[in-house]
Amino acid sequence: MKKEEISKLFELLQNHKVYVQTHNFPDPDAIGSAYGLQQLLKYQGIESHLCYVGNIERISLQSIIKILPIKFASYDQIMNMSEDDYIVTVDGQKHNTNLTDLPGNEIACIDHHPTVFECDYQYKDIRIVGSCSTLITQYYIETNTPMSEDVATALLYGLQVDTDNLTRGVTMLDIEMFSYLYQKANNQLIYQINNSSMELNDLKAYGAAIENIHLYDSVGFACIPFDCPDALIAMVADFILALQEVNFCVIYSYRKNGLKFSIRSGIPNVLDAGIIAHKALATLNGSGGGHSTMSGGFLSYEELKKTGITEDHWDGVIEEKFLNELG
Ligand SMILES: [Mn+2]
Question: How far apart are CA 189 and CA 282, in angstroms?
């Protein structure tokens, strides 16, 4: 994205009430890119409020937000949002199941995920790179905007987590932006956060996944038979994929309203996690999608029941549907 194009975003937002919305239950990349964009806009004299639906699940991310500190729109502010207010979505796109449709007008989108549902934005920057933080970092460089240590820290943490420390879905742009951020960020803080990212409660989810793992050649399935937050299911999926015997894995948790999925592919050029999740879950009236390396999905109990499959067969049918798509 060149300076002239980025200026169009500034012009568009000028003199409007602006919200920067991340996907629901934001992760480090969503928070980093939202905060980075907010401070970039501020330098242009554009005030904005950060908002999201859901909550921040990981204690490690909560502490980084507290230390920097990053402020979010209050509940009242979101409640008072009008249809004339502008929303810029970051690290997520309108109409996706993981981005709740708020009253404001989704005028712009900056994201690094493949598009599932097309949408007309007045400003759109969707590029498949390792993290959304990468795109925001480039905005600073292109527009010659000075970057504070706090912004660099939030962006670098997002970039590191989304690319699994520069080993997943990485492009040259990610590497260039990494080197820029690394010189400005509080690396000591990131080191501390990275080395205390597990919580005692997490072990229950890991334990359940280990106990329930089913292997079909190099495809692993594991259900966590209780309600488990998104970020934790994702961590368990990374953990199972790390097994030498596993090239592709499907991990899901039994939530209050349905099954929440996290899918990983170790051979994304052969098995695309985003496409396979989308196709397999669609056959059960569910939704899914994402990157070739990592994706997610959801199957509501209501929709699952409509398929006529009885509850004690759900696990078997899920495995069958994914194995069909995997060939
Ligand atoms: Mn991301």
Answer: 42
For 309, half-sphere exposure in the C-beta direction (CA atoms, 13 angstrom radius) is: 17
Provide the 3-class DSSP secondary structure of residue 316: helix
CATH topology of domain 3-194: inorganic pyrophosphatase (n-terminal core) (3.90.1640)
Say which residues have a Cβ less than 8 Å from residue 32's Cβ, sequence separation at least 6: 131, 132, 133, 136, 154, 155, 156, 157, 158, 159
Is pTM beyond 0.70? Reply is yes
Domain with CATH 3.10.310.40 in the chain: 202-326
CB atoms within 10 A of CB 69: 9
- What are the tens digits of pLDDT across the range 110-151? 999 999 889 999 999 999 999 999 999 999 999 999 999 999
* Intervals of CATH 3.90.1640.10 along the chain: 3-194
Residue 291 to residues 24, 186, 253: CA-CA distances in angstroms?
Answer: 17, 29, 20
CB 249 within 8 A of CB 220: yes
Q: What are phi and psi of 202, to 5 degrees?
A: -60, -35
How remote is the CA of residue 278 from the centroid of ligand 1, in Å?
A: 18
Q: Calculate how far, in angstroms, residue 53's C-alpha sits from the geometric centre of ligand 1.
A: 16
- Please tell me the distance from the alpha carbon of residue 85 to that of residue 16, in angstroms, as a whole number: 7
Please give the C-alpha separations between residue 15 and each of 40, 44, 86, 176, in angstroms, as whole numbers.
Answer: 16, 12, 10, 33
CATH topology of domain 202-326: Diaminopimelate Epimerase; Chain A, domain 1 (3.10.310)
Instruction: Identify whether the C-beta of residue 299 lies closer than 8 Å to the C-beta of residue 281.
Output: yes
CA of residue 2 to ligand 1 center, whole Å: 21
How close is the Cα of 77 to the center of ligand 1, in Å? 25
Helix residue ranges per DSSP H, 44-131: 59-67, 75-79
**How close is the Cα of 183 to the center of ligand 1, in Å?**
22
Determine the pLDDT at residue 285: 93
